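hey can u check if this looks right to u? its 114 residues, i copy pasted from the old doc so theres a chance i mangled smth
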Amino acid sequence: MALVKCVTEMGMGVDVHGLNYTGAAQRAVFDAIHHSSLGFQQLIGKTADDMRVDVTIGIPKPEKVDGDAVLSVLPHGHGYINVVHGGLEVLNPAGDDGTLVANAILIVSFDDGK
């Protein structure tokens, strides 16, 4: 199987209060997938469910992200996730709350059948 990268899309998700890392990551993926509407897969004899979607999330504390919950946001395809250090976290003066920003990059690929 040889994968052909067809689309790269970026998104940003924010949790304003509560430091919900998974929620911010889910919002970043939701933002990315709603920047595009893919219809070209019909030209190559595929459906949206044939997509491979590689999701990379950048967030300050990767270990706090539930990868399966983030992938559940994808409406089609087979998702794979990689959570890395990135994003932004600005804590309140007490350090117990703050604003959290997650970034997502989604790469959509299809098997070329070779």
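The domain at 3-111 is CATH 3.30.1330.20 (60s Ribosomal Protein L30; Chain: A;).
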